[in-house]
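Before relying on records like the one below, remember that each one covers exactly one chain. Contacts with other chains, cofactors or solvent are not represented anywhere in the record.
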Amino acid sequence: MPLPYELFIGLRYTRASRRAGGRNGFISFISALSVAGIALGVAALITVLSVMNGFQKEVRDRMLSVLAHIEVLAGRAPMTDWQSVLAQARRNPAVIGGAPYVAGQAMLTHEGSVRGVLVRGIDPALEPQVADFARKMLRGNLADLRPGEFGVAIGSELADQLLLDVGSKLTLIAPQGTATPAGLVPRLRQLTVVAVFRAGHYEYDSSLLLMNIEDAAKLFRVEGVSGVRLKTRDMLAAPEVANELARTMSGDLMIRDWSAENRNWFAAVQIEKRMMFIILTLIMAVAAFNLVSMLVMTVTDKQSDIAILRTLGATPASIMRIFVVQGASVGLLGTVLGVVLGVLLALNIGPATAWVESVFGFQVLPKGIYFINYLPSDLRLPDVVAIGGTACVLALGSTLYPSWRASRVRPAEALRYE
């Protein structure tokens, strides 16, 4: 089947501009700049979004190593029948684990230093079903949190700040005071550090304190537990599973998932990704302006050709399609090259970063400053499709005005001085 002549001529103009010299050579140079600009913009956007997705995934995974996918609370009152609540939740096939907990806030003191901490009472036997503390332990283990001994596991940052280690003694001040004739007296309890963990997230490494659930219940005077923590088969499906549990579970319960508990952080990350997409799209817009310049000069240079085509019966719409094909082919070439380069760079960001560090002699993410000392990458097909589609739309849109100008060329005026 023969090609439409508009497509044939448009592709021929694209090839001819690369071979010819003189003015056509300058047009070819502008065309090459357009291809390079679009390719660099597409590659940069794919790489940056992949790195941002990688950081988001890394931080999310580290957070969920100490947080539950779903929490089931009994409102303001303690939960006394947590076994039945857990049994109801486990009926959902998406729930694969559960454990009770007691939570409270307290003050921690050691040799004159004071820190506010979040105390979480856990059952060492059930906790591995919902959190991966076993692999996060630097010293000691969860089994050392025995009831009645008031042993605690603390984060590595908190241990460094207070100069604590396994065997250290510290004092915890509970907000539930004891009423005396002299007034309300804070309740003090001496604790022993039996384990140190590193979750990889500063907030939890510096403020989370674990103890046996029975000790926490005595400390905060809780009859029962604060709630039940659940783990789902797919953490990304936790919001939908939480909605299902809210509809199917009986009782006056409050159910929340991990995304709701950290809503502000994830909202901030999404805003950053959108702004980065907009900023880097401007790079492709600049390349699209180069494409406009190239087509305007091509139309000016090809006015005699346009006039001859018009005298042979070509319509203004056909002339417009010829130059749309020429500009779109340049934009499509830049987009394809950018997608290939961006995908390769996103998939090999680690070796690329190591090469940059070795050549320029510096660390991108120094170990002493950042918890994540490498650039993670999470390449996602929807992002690649969206970026490629945006580049194609910009390239196609930039061809409309020059192509319209070409369709308005009058044959008699164009051939007057030929």
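Residues 18-22 have pLDDT under 50 and may be disordered.
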